[in-house]
Amino acid sequence: MTREEKFLEKLFNKYYRSKGSTIFAPSMIEKREFAFIFFGKEGMLRHVSYRSVEELKGFISTHTPKHVYYSSAYYKYPSMDSMDEKIWEGADLVFDIDADHIPTDCKEEHDFWICTSCNLSGKGTPPSKCPKCGNEKLDSLKWICNKCLDAAKSEVEKLLDILLDDLGFKEQEIKVFFSGHRGFHIHVESEYIRDLGQDARREIIDYIEGRGLDIKLFRRGDVLDIGPDRSGWRKRLFQFLIEFLSEEEDPLTLSNKVGISKRSAERVIRVKEDLLKVILSNPVEWRVIVRSLGERTFERIVNYVVNRNVPSIDERVTIDTKRLIRLPGSLHGKTGFKVQAVDFSNIWDFNPVEHACVFPDYEISLKLKRPVPSQIFGVTLDSKKERIKVPLYLAVYLLGNGGATLD
Fold it and tell me: CA 283 to CA 15: how far, in whole Å?
């Protein structure tokens, strides 16, 4: 175990011994599988179960894991090594929204890459190979900022709208958690979805992402059956089209975004105001839209507004009926932040340093060993210096991500 790992393990141990009561107790805990990764050790300890949250807290405070996970699934025998022997009895519906998967301009400023051969580094998305030595093995150094988290929050809002308004889940059935790093986990516990298999969960994903949505299916003769008084995608598509037609775009930008010719984009801009009146009218006349734009152009617009407004979620997590997910209340081993419950009615007020930080802000000295952004969580860093002083919570983040060593 490295000096840094020992340092972090000691901090984690102190937290778990004094604040272990914040560990979240999953429902039907005796039917859940738990898993752990430890400081200085390879692999994962799996197939562990507990009869009570007190047993779980006791293990965590004694053994000080780096990461703690539990199963979204319920098992008859969760501690059995074989998945078949566990006997699956259902699973929660879980969503993972990670800022790393959401395109944001800020990544070009605070993310870095470094060549494993010659140590050349650069900002932003890694090239296919090192421009200096041609090595194709490049390490990525991904950091987080408020813009990244805001992008993830926006995706959470989109998802919650669909879960509540379209799929009919109740607020008390949904829990939102900050993942401890770059995003959020959304847990849905409901008897209506507990027994769903992978295919059924994939259908939920398809609905959420508007996959296979065909605008022609919304036709009722000469009427396009969308509007503010409709439900599901009929209402959502109406809102998306209103937003699109209210935006100002030049022809070239519009052409590139939507995937239509510049000539078609010029026509869209020319008839936007009239189209907005048509969409806002009741009923919405299909033939007027098609006559103004052409059917193919309108379909391209529909595809564009759907794709840019659907939430960005990791499909594999939701489809997996035996997924291991981070335990709320535990600490993320790469950041030191707590996997924190978030009131989704106030998600925009959430700030990791204010609401998920468990370590104090007294300063310690570190040695930078890899490129870091000029600012992290509001703290300005001089990356040109070899030695820096930062608050302890930021030191944990830098040490956990491999950006620094102890001085």
Answer: 61
